[in-house]
């Protein structure tokens, strides 16, 4: 093969690899007894993307996360591919980093020892894990707090420790389930900007659940709006806003127009869930 053709071939291969989804879900459904939580859900997530997920309460966001984390198997009939290979949900257990809503810090462990917990459980020597964590403390805003205990930290600092633990568990895909939901508005805004700085440095792929539309738009490359139960994807809204995202972008006409689109979609689905819950038993 001539050199020019070889270079072009390699470039095409690299471009194809970059565009190949890290995670692809097709026709995913999940039923618990008589309740159908998800129905024919499909989404593809590319490497390095920051995808935010919004939707009415009870739409199956947490069920989706549990499937992607390998904690729940979907119903038969759908397909799941990870890194281009067909997989079962259970194959993803331990291959995806998952941070739930609560920080789940162990009260008897210091900041540094909470941060290294996941890698320590993987078999990394404690001394080596601590060295790695100490090098990461500055970018997580925790310098000088390595020997503090969880009860000595603010809510924002506890979340930074939990996120550091998640980042140290080096996985291609990170699932963040409303990590800032319990924080006050000012701390939440600061944490959002801090998270984007860390994400842009490490470029991990992130799937992020939130109930806050402003947060979804400010953080995401795409916002995935889910329908009322049974959950499926109603809308995938690209967020073509410049990065790095500045705080003032939330008052720009472009941001406000995107917010209106998302709010309309969510309100429509929320009304459906109210209508369904108001129906007498036995009605269709």
Automatic annotation (TrEMBL):
Keywords in alphabetical order: ATP-binding, Cell membrane, Membrane, Nucleotide-binding, Transport
Cited PROSITE patterns: ABC_TRANSPORTER_2
Coiled coil: none
Gene3D superfamilies: P-loop containing nucleotide triphosphate hydrolases
Domain ABC transporter, chain residue ranges per copy: 23-253
Molecular function as annotated in GO: ATP binding; ATP hydrolysis activity
Origin: domain of life: Bacteria
SMART domains: AAA
SUPFAM superfamilies: P-loop containing nucleoside triphosphate hydrolases
Record-linked CDD domains: ABC_NrtD_SsuB_transporters
PANTHER family in UniProt: ABC TRANSPORTER ATP-BINDING PROTEIN (PTHR42788:SF2), TAURINE IMPORT ATP-BINDING PROTEIN-RELATED (PTHR42788)
UniProt similarity note: Belongs to the ABC transporter superfamily.
Protein name (Swiss-Prot/TrEMBL): ABC transporter ATP-binding protein
């Amino acid at each position: 093969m001539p050199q020019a053709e070889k270079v072009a071939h390699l470039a095409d291969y690299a471009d194809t690899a970059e565009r190949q989804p890290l995670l692809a879900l097709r026709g995913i459904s999940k039923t618990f007894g008589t309740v159908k939580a998800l129905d024919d859900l499909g989404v593809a997530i590319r490497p390095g993307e920051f995808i935010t997920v919004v939707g009415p309460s009870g739409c199956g966001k947490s069920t989706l996360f549990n499937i992607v984390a390998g904690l729940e198997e979907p119903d038969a009939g759908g397909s799941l591919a990870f890194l281009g290979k067909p997989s079962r949900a259970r194959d993803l257990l331990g291959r995806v980093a998952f941070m739930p809503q609560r920080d789940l810090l162990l009260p008897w462990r210091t900041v540094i020892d909470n941060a290294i917990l996941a890698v320590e459980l993987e078999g990394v020597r404690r001394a080596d894990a601590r060295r790695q964590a100490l090098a990461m403390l500055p970018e997580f805003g925790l310098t000088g707090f390595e020997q503090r205990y969880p009860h000595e930290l603010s809510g924002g600092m506890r979340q930074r420790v939990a996120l550091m633990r998640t980042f140290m568990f080096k996985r291609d895909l990170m699932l963040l389930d409303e990590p800032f939901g319990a924080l006050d508005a000012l701390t939440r805004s600061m944490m959002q900007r801090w998270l984007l700085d860390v994400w842009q440095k490490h470029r991990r792929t992130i799937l992020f659940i939130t109930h806050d539309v402003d947060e979804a738009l400010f953080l995401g490359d795409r916002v995935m709006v889910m329908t009322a139960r049974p959950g499926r994807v109603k809308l995938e809204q690209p967020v073509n806003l410049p990065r790095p995202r500045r705080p003032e972008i939330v008052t720009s006409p472009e941001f406000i127009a995107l917010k209106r689109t998302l709010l309309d979609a969510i309100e429509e689905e929320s009304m459906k869930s109210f209508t369904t819950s108001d129906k007498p038993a036995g009605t269709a």
